[in-house]
Amino acid sequence: MKVCHVMHTMGVGGAEVLISNMIRRGSPEVEFCVVLLDEMGPLGDQLAGEGIEVRCVGRRPGVDWRLLGDLKKTFIELAPDLVHCHQYTPWFYGGWAAARSKLPVVFTEHGRHQPDRPRVRRILFNRYLLRRTGAITAVSGSIKRALVENEKLPADRIRVLYNGIDHHRFFADEAGRRRMRDELHLAPDELAIGHAGRLMSVKNQAMLLRALARLRDLRPDLEWKALLAGKGPLEEELRRLHAELELGERVVFLGQRRDVPELLRAFDVFALSSFSEGTSVTLLEAMATELPVVATRVGGNPELIEEGVNGYLTPNDDAEAFAQALARMDDPALRRRMGQAARSKVLERFTEEGMVEGFLSIYRDLLSRDGRARGRGEERS
User: Fold this and answer.
1) Are residues 51 and 121 in the same domain?
2) What Rg value do the Cα atoms of the chain yield, rounded?
3) Would strands 158-160 and 135-138 be described as parallel, antiparallel, or unpaired?
4) Has residue 9 been placed in a domain?
C-alpha cells in the first residue's frame, strides 16, 4: 500500500520527527510519500534527498480554496492508496481533496493552538470531513477531549494512539555522560538542568528562565547549570530576559543540536515549561534516557509523568512552583529512582514499534474495507 502523509512542513518539530522516523523505519508492506502545504523544511529536504517523494504545494494566505485543486492534482500524480493528514489544517485541505479523489483518509491531531475554543464555521466543516474520514487518532487523552469539546467530533470515532520513540537510541550511558559533560564544561557534582525545544511562545521558556532565577535565590547553596537546546523566533527575546534576570553563566543557550541522544545523557533533570503539549517527543526521549522530569501540568504531560514517581508536575506558568520542584531534584538517589521509572514508562507504552504498528493496523483495516490495496497489488504484480 502507498500512504501519503499531508503536513504543514517538515521542520524540526515533534510530529515532523515522528513521521520522518516512521518513513525511514520503513515496512515491507508500505510505500510512503509526503505532501507539504507550506514549505519543505530541513527534514523534507533530507527525505527528498533519500529518494522519498516529497511535494510542497505552497498554500496561499487566508483560506486557500485553490489549494483543493492543487492537492487533488498532486494526489492523482502520486497515486496513493490512502491519505494520512497530520494536524487540523492539513486535514481540512487534505481531507477535502482526498474525498474528491475518492481516497480513504486518516486524521491525526498532534497538538492544539491556544486559546483552544469551539469555532462554529469549523464545526460545520467538520461534519463534512467526518463523513469522509475513515479513522481519527489523537496523541493523548487530552487531545481527544479537545477534539470532542471544541471540534464536536464524536468520542467513539477517536482512538488515542500515543507517540512513540526509538528507545534503542535513547538510553543512559555513563561513559557518554562523562564525555558530554566535559564538552559542556559541567563539573562532576553540578546539577545539570536540561531543556530541548523550539524557542517559541507555546514552549514558555520565559517562565523557565524566571523559575531558574527563583531557584538561584531559593537555593544559594546548590551548584547548578541550565542548558537550553534549540532555536526559534523568541531567541532574542529570551536572551534579553536572561540578561535582565542576571542569570549569567548559569544558563547556556546551546542553539540547534543534532546530537540530542548524546546531549540528554549529560543532563540530571529535564525541564518542560510548555503552555500546551500533546505527547511531547522530546519529553519521551528524556525519559528513555532515564531523566526525571519537572513539567507543567498541561495537555498530555500528566499521562506521561506520575507525580513523585518519575517526576513532578507544576501548575501552568507558575515559576515559583517550578523552581521549588527543581530544588527537590538535588538528591542523586531520588533522581536515579525517578529516572529508572521514567524509562520503564516509555518501554511500557511509548515505543516507536507500538506507534507504527498502531498506524499500520489502521491502514490495513481501512484499505481492506476499501479494497484499494488489493487492487493496486494485483495491478503492480
Assistant:
1) yes
2) 22
3) parallel
4) yes
Cis amide prior to 80 (ω within 30 degrees): no
Q: Taking 60 as the threshold, does the pLDDT of residue 379 lie above it?
A: no
- How far apart CA 72 and CA 194 sit, in angstroms, is 44
Q: By C-alpha distance, which of 278, 274, 239 is closest to 255?
A: 239
The DSSP result for 162-214, as a single string, is ---B-TTT----HHHHHHHHHHTT--TT-EEEEEES--SGGG-HHHHHHHHHH
What is the Cα–Cα distance from 257 to 204, expressed in whole angstroms?
19
Residues spanned by the domain of 312: 174-349
Q: Which amino acid is at 77?
A: E
Q: What is the pLDDT of residue 372?
A: 57
CATH number at residue 125: 3.40.50.2000
Please check the confidence at residue 378 and state whether its pLDDT lies above 60. Answer: no
Under the phi-then-psi rule, with left for phi > 0, alpha for psi from -120 to 50, and beta for the rest, what region is 68?
A: alpha
169, part of any domain? no
Convert the pLDDT of each residue in 85-94 to its tens digit.
Answer: 999 999 999 9
Percent of the chain with pLDDT over 90: 91
Q: Which residue has the cell 493552538?
A: 113
The CB-side HSE value for 254 (13 A sphere, CA atoms) comes to 23
Q: What CA–CA distances, in Å, run from 270 to 37, 80, 167?
A: 33, 40, 17
> CA 168: distance to chain centroid?
18
- Hey, what's the cell of 155? 468520542
CB count, 10 Å around CB of 137? Answer: 23
377 pLDDT band (50/70/90 cuts)?
A: very low
Q: Residue 140 — φ and ψ, nearest 5°?
A: -160, 165
